[in-house]
Amino acid sequence: MYKRNDSYKQQDLFGIKNSLSAKQERIWNNSIENCFFEQIFKKINQDRFKVLYSEKKSRPNVAVNQLVGSLILKHLFNWTYEDLFRNLHFNLLTRHAIGLQHLQEDVFSEASIFNFQNRVIEHFVRTGEDLLTEVFDRLTTSQLKEFGIMTDIQRGDSFLLGSNIFDYTRLQLLIEVILRLYRNLDTIDKERFSELLSKYTKQTSGQYVFRIKKEDLPKESQTLAKIYHDLFIMANNKYSDHRAFKIFERVYYEHFIVVEDKIELLPANTLTSDSLMSPDDDQATFRKKGKIKSKGYSGHISETANPENKLNLITDVITVPNNTDDARILEERLPTMIEKTSDLNEYHADGSYGSPTVDLMMEDQDITQVQTAVRGKRPHAKMSIKEDESEEVYWVKCEYGQKVKAEKANKGKNVKRHKAVFDYQTCLQCPLKDKCSSRITGVKINRPKRTWYFSEEKIRLHKRLQNFEKLPEERRKIRANVEATVKELKRGVKNGKVRVRSYVRVGCYLTFTSIAVNLTRIHKYVLKSNRNMLRMALITRIHALLNLQNEPLISSN
């Protein structure tokens, strides 16, 4: 049965805070835990979690604001669950952060917080409602308004979040999946396959693979292929509802193929990035970003970036499979970002966020997209494109200064590219003539002229580059600071992996961490503002005292 927790609103005369000395009270008020209590705990909408509990009269639930608050504290300080409960029991500031006023008040058990998380996840899987993201959105909206933060200019970036799974080799994964299916077979079927699988079941998959010689791999692959086929035929109807069999079935179709009644192992290069990485996380995908390989997910964040802001906060956060293109993330997330910050009119990102679809969406919403780089090789000889709407033509200007009128594509003739013709003799005098190659710039040499064909996509690409070049110098480096935010968010990531696995749990990790990063920034900002106010008050007081000393004791009047 759901019950609100409002006990923290009634201040107790004999509470912990009222027993503090003046110095202790000053430290207490300036602590990040007190900031947490004011900015997060008191603003958690408990009633939104009512859907997780029965409407029948029964034992009341553990306070929702304490559960949610404790999970955020865990990510704020990068604690383990053991650290969290040690501080909840004995740290006065931690207890204050979740509204506990007395040492005699017991906190909830570890089982309660695990059950709560499972309920939130089950609710998300069943209904699609992300209650924790709603907490983030509600808190952020309140904070943006309270501190007068402008949201018209924002920046964004994505980053890898590895799932907390074992890095299996292909052979080890195939064996591990067999072992897990075998454990779920009934007694009769275990006896049936005991002899066939005996060399695997007597040890772990890692121990078995460690002893295999390189020259034995082809034979091992053939053996595994036959075992997979026999197990699939036998267990298909009997164990189809078991999770272990569903994992086995997925691996069977991803790694093997039946050709003329013979099953064979598919070549490794046919596997895709969304093939199963681990039986412990069937949603994790694979991505190689530069030299970094990751099995798991990607996080994407947007944050305010107006140079006039004294405080910037994360405004949007999302977790996606790590093989999702950055441009696709922005394409799907942009409507939500606009809904939350309707005054957004300038967005800074790197070159991977550019795409024709995103360009059209940005134009439709009157948002200037600023990219610090573009995909692929940049031409040595730059071209600029400007549309003349009155004449319905494009003016194309090369870096050397030659300006020509470009013919627009004739849609009636199914011509998809526009054409600009440069004077060949002028091009011969250009110092960039050798760099203006067909391979990079797209200029075709056809005496006595040079022709450059360009598409609508190329026009939008040039527009993005021009957006960057039009910016004042101080606003060209806005995007770079988002990497510092990413570093803050990945503070709890070790060896590229978070402490949890599965799409939903990694999403919860990123949501809680984003709330924690915003709170840290607010706390620093408030402390700095308080110090400045105190400094100004002292200066005013000193001036007042100096003025009093300069006044005569008895007026001449």
Based on the model shown, name its key terms.
six-stranded mixed sheet, single chain, alpha+beta, 19 helices, 4 domains, flat, 14 strands, Nucleotidyltransferase, domain 5, 557 residues
Secondary structure layout plus pairing:
Layout lengths: L21 H9 L1 H8 L24 H13 L4 H10 L1 H6 L12 H18 L3 H16 L6 E10 L7 H14 L3 H8 L3 H4 L3 H6 L6 H19 L7 H13 E4 L2 E4 L19 E5 L2 E13 L9 E8 L4 H15 L5 E4 L6 H9 L3 E4 L11 E6 L4 E6 L4 E5 L10 E6 H5 L14 E4 L2 E6 L1 H15 L11 H8 L13 H48 L7
Parallel strand pairs: 1-7, 7-8
Antiparallel strand pairs: 1-5, 2-3, 4-5, 5-6, 9-10, 10-11, 11-12, 12-14, 13-14
Give an overview of the whole structure:
The protein is of the alpha+beta class and 557 residues long. The protein folds into four domains: 1-129, no CATH class; 130-165 and 295-372 and 476-549, Nucleotidyltransferase, domain 5 (2-Layer Sandwich); 170-270, no CATH class; 383-458, no CATH class. Helices cover 44% and strands 15% of the residues. It contains 19 helices and 14 strands. The strands form three sheets. Strands 1, 4, 5, 6, 7 and 8 form a six-stranded mixed sheet that branches. A hairpin with a 2-residue loop joins β13 and β14. The model has no long low-confidence stretch (mean pLDDT 87).
